[in-house]
Amino acid sequence: MGVEDVLKDLAEQVRQEVPSGIEVTDIEFEAATLVIYTKHPEKFAEHDDLVRRLAKRLRKRLVVRPDPSVLADVAEAQAKITAIVPAEAEITEIYFEPDVGQVVIEAKKPGLVIGRHGQTLNEIKKAIGWAPQVMRTPPIPSKTIREIRDYSRSVSDERKAFLRKVGRRIYRGTSKGEQWVRWMSLGGYREVGRSCHLLHTQDSKIMVDCGVNISADGDASGSPYLHMPEIYPFTSLDAVVLSHAHLDHCGFIPLLYKYGYDGPVYATAPTRDLTTLLCMDYLKVAAAEGRKSPYDSENIRQFIKNCITLKWGDTTDIAPDVKLTLQNSGHIIGSSISHFHIGDGMYNVACTSDMKYERTWLFNPAVNKFPRLETLVVESTYGGKNDFQPTRQSAYDQMVDILTRTLPNGGKVMIPTFAVGRSQEIMIVIEELVAQGKIPKVTTWLDGMIWEATAIHTAYPEYLNNKLRTQIFHEGDNPLLADIFKRVESQDKRREILASAEPCVVLATSGMLSGGPIMEYFKEWAPYEKNALVFVGFQAEGTLGKRVQKGLNEVNLMERGQPRNVKVSCLVETCDGFSGHSDRRQLMNYINNISPRPERIIMMHGEESKCIDFASSVHKKYRIQTSAPHNLETIRLR
């Protein structure tokens, strides 16, 4: 059955379900969503359960939009919105998208725009005809979010055409004959970095992640195997699924667009925003270091235009025979386990990407319950037999000890960290320590991308753990907004901090001492015993961070083209308990508690010895078929 036949059949079912007094003027696919245009949007709003009944009957995600002929005048509509929405919602912007009959309402308290059970939203629909969409105004102004929203508005016509093309590709129909499922390792197997996977069926190709190995120093091992005939040309791909915004998973997504990919990337909204931030910074760092960039900002903009955001738990068609559901992986904000439902119940695969099976200061533990599951692809970063991390409480106590030993003596605490995830968790711990009086009130400087990444975190509190959501939504208290956190907004401010005698904490990128502003603090403060350097995240082999962590006491660096020797005399500590990855115990518990139990487990995202050991241990303990493939291996799952 072709797309036109599918639409014709759906239109007939819509006519049967919709009361005779409601006129439907058109239906069309926009990606996996079926859009219904009507001259009576207010009547749809009056029938509370009509859309729900339609979605259940059609087994499709639905959006109801007003026919352009019934839209209220923009000025009139804006006045009515302002009158209907309580002033306490604090609307910051209203803008209209005539091409889709939609009005976007940005507010500091979006829940009040929606109303109890969507009552306020329905009232808006009835009053103006336009379909309202509600967005949260970031409490900390985010340049990234603002630019993404402005750019998306400017290409709305192109976006609409793109979504329609995607919808027709998704519903093009399936072939007859033998059905099969293959999983191919394109990067990040028996190694950490350049994560990339291919899910291949007889009717579709889905890429999962496309990252860069940031410790590869520009050689060929920095890129996934993107030249393979299974995926090239990239126009043969139906979709790309992006698990989360760390460069080893997202860093080469824009490269796909440079070389011809024109399809969708599925991710959560925080992942889209943070990927944009990280990839733009990747270009800036390459330019500053005199390296040729693998892609440019136009390729990043195409990623934004083609990104289809999903919420956790929403299931959507992404190919003729594949449905996708993203679930919380507990690693960073918006990070997701990708669950693929293939065929009509034929096969199910879940790929954890990076995960944390523990409730942290920021996130709930990774989801381990799925409707169906035959194969699990799981990370092995800390899968080795001796990879047991301290508890969160131990890390907390260790951080208290480091801060109380360093700060009263006038020392500076340097914390090299990724901009996303660990930085915000450390911020919450420091805020709690200050609030409880366990350490004196100390200025904590955020350098590099950390301030902007934190701003993005504050825009999506619904992706934080239950405790934080309650604290933010019901108590109006967001620890990330505490006044002890200050932004390093310029080189002059950084020089001022470096010259100051005042004790302080600095969170700065990069997390592995592989460049970034942390190096300025390291060069000036590492030689002094009163200061401290604290590692809170994974240090890849070959990086400066790993060498210093192992005890390197003198570092040869280049500064303005001249060599400089830096002695490492400061206290060097590692707080492993802040890691966003599960340790060996948590990984084994995850597999023990996963439901349903998979028939096969594939190990990836770990050093070779750890992938092999983890695979062997799981097989021995749980009698599940396991494997630790090399890059470029293909496994037939069915």
Q: Which descriptors apply to this entry?
A:
21 helices; Metallo-beta-lactamase, Chain A; seven-stranded mixed sheet; GMP Synthetase, Chain A, domain 3; alpha/beta
In a nutshell, what does this entry contain?
With 638 residues, the chain is α/β, with parallel strands linked by helices.
Helix/strand class: alpha/beta
The CATH architecture term of the largest domain is 4-Layer Sandwich
CATH homology group of the largest domain: Ribonuclease Z/Hydroxyacylglutathione hydrolase-like
Report the CATH C-level class of the largest domain: Alpha Beta
- Described by the principal axes of the CA atoms, the overall outline is globular
User: How many helix segments?
Assistant: 21
Q: What does the average pLDDT come to?
A: 92
> Strand portion, in percent?
15-25%
Q: Which spans have pLDDT < 50 for at least 5 consecutive residues?
A: none
Span between N and C termini? 25 Å
Order of strands, widest sheet: 12-11-10-9-8-7-28
**CA radius of gyration:** 25 Å
| Helicity, as a percent range | 25-40%
At the third CATH level, what is the topology name of the largest domain?
Metallo-beta-lactamase, Chain A
State the domain count. Answer: 4
- Describe the biggest sheet? 7 strands, mixed
- Number of strand segments: 28
Would you mind describing this structure in some detail?
With 638 residues, the protein is an alpha/beta fold. The protein folds into four domains: 3-69, 2-Layer Sandwich (GMP Synthetase, Chain A, domain 3); 73-137, K homology (KH) domain (GMP Synthetase, Chain A, domain 3, 2-Layer Sandwich), CATH 3.30.300.20; 180-386 and 581-636, Ribonuclease Z/Hydroxyacylglutathione hydrolase-like (Metallo-beta-lactamase, Chain A), CATH 3.60.15.10; 392-578, Rossmann fold (3-Layer(aba) Sandwich), CATH 3.40.50. The chain is 34% helix and 22% strand. It contains 21 helices and 28 strands. The strands form six sheets. It has a seven-stranded mixed beta sheet with strand order 12-11-10-9-8-7-28. It has a seven-stranded mixed beta sheet with strand order 13-14-15-16-17-26-27, covered by helices on one side. It has a six-stranded parallel beta sheet with strand order 20-19-21-18-22-25, with helices on both faces. Strand 8 (196-201) and strand 9 form a beta hairpin. It starts with a helix and ends with a strand. The relative contact order is 0.10.
